[in-house]
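job 3f2a | input accepted
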Amino acid sequence: MAKPLYRLQRFLRRTQLFLLFLGVAYIMAGSVLLLQRANLVVTQRGATSPPLSSLPSLPSPPWALGISQIMSRGQGYQPGSLLDNRTGARWLMSRNLEIRHLRRRWFHSLMTEKDMSHVERSTPRRNVPQKGSYMGCFLDNSKERALRGSVSTDFRKMTSTMCQDTCSASGYQFAGLEYGSECYCGNHITSLRVRDEECNLDCKGEKGSPCGGVGRLSVFTVEDVLPGQRRYRNVRYRGCFREPDNSSSTSLVHVLQPNLTSQSCIEACINKEFPLAMLRSSDCFCGYATPDFTLHEPAEEEHCSQSNTTEASLPSTLQRFYQVYQTPVQDSRCTERKFLPEKSSSLVALSSFPGAGNTWVRHLIELATGYYTGSYYFDGTLYNRGFKGEKDYWKSGRTICVKTHESGRREIEMYDSVILLIRSPYRSLVAEFNRKCAGHLGYASDHHWKTKEWPEFVGSYASWWASHVLDWLRFGRRVLVVHFEELQTTLVPQLRSITSFLNTTVTEDRLLCAESNQDGHFKRSGVRQPTFDPFTPDMRGLIDGLIHAVDQALRDSNHTGLPLEYLPR
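job 3f2a | predicted structure (569 res):
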């Protein structure tokens, strides 16, 4: 009996040794394969760019500073990523700007001027044809902008031509690009020029084209058009308005021009980067809307015509009137935005049914408060167009409020309070169907409206419109009801109510600035509708019944009922 046991023990010992040997061999084989792959990558890089001249023995780079900044942003560190790939200068072009600056700071301190010029020559920038003339690279920061006109962002498709077209359509002479994705416009460059090499980022949508850098702006001139031949989009007549009692408080700039016309006054105010152009007889004024000149109480048009034709014979004590035009210039008093300086302990929802205008209200809240809004979801299209809070974790506490379309009890009770945005179900259903068929800015075709998808959509989504409101009224802890249509007609008072609910102090000038810039980048152009009524009598019967139910629930919850235009007649 002892002999078989002895043989079994020997067999097990040999099996353990054999398995250990196989494991070691497997690990060694894998290591060899990885080394070969790494060698292949280095060889390929060396083939595309000439090798650097041999370097002297290098001291250790500032790892502690580099790793602490990397890890604080949740980005992993890969061993050898800063030192091992020295075959070419391509490793200097990291996508992470802060890491790249750390590399440059350390690397430049070790290289001679001759070596540095060799690196710069080894990574030539591909010449991309530009629409306008390149002016150079300029300093830029959030407090002192090089160009102080309008701002737009596209983290995916930004090109120099896109930026120049945007600035040209708004009447600006210069277009500047920064961080590869941000576009700034202006008529005056107010900062110092630096070396062109410091604008070292490519445009997100056009590789090889300079799009600024970190705190650096690549500036172009837009197509030069003679005065009087320019055609601007979005110039609109605001109306006739009475001159304020204290005209000096409106900070109007008087522009003297011979042979004054409305076109020449508008061009003069665009050149001076003002959003308002005002005419009074032979005088042209430029400025902003202010608490003393809100443009909320227009006068009869006949007052402007009489004042302009007979002003010389009018007594000086008689009130005078302005003809006011909105220029394409963006009011820059409310364009800077940031995350909350301290983590908020209160989680506020901005809740709405899809298609109710949630994105537009987020845009208004960001303009009015200066803080980013977040989202329960992640929409890459919105993030690419400047909604930076879209990518932030929705419970981070760094955003002023959080977009959501959810309406279950569990999801509702996660929030401390809610801004409940309600829009007419007829308009909401049309807007959401347009988005589903053609994206944020597109329109569904007549073919889409005539398919079976539309009645199925109404059958399921109409009841959701009602249940969404009813659930938030029932389970929400602290609810502010905002009607989309009332926000359109009385924007400043509604925004004042929203910012007060958010416990944020906002100046009246900032609210007026938000009103001036209210359209944003996600407003569908025109009012394109299907050529026929898409709502059948059965659909209307269903929707009208839901409208009555929601109206009654609002009144029972001590809120004002739905606007009269919602209610069926």
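job 3f2a | Residues 22 and 28 are 10 Å apart (CA to CA).
job 3f2a | closed
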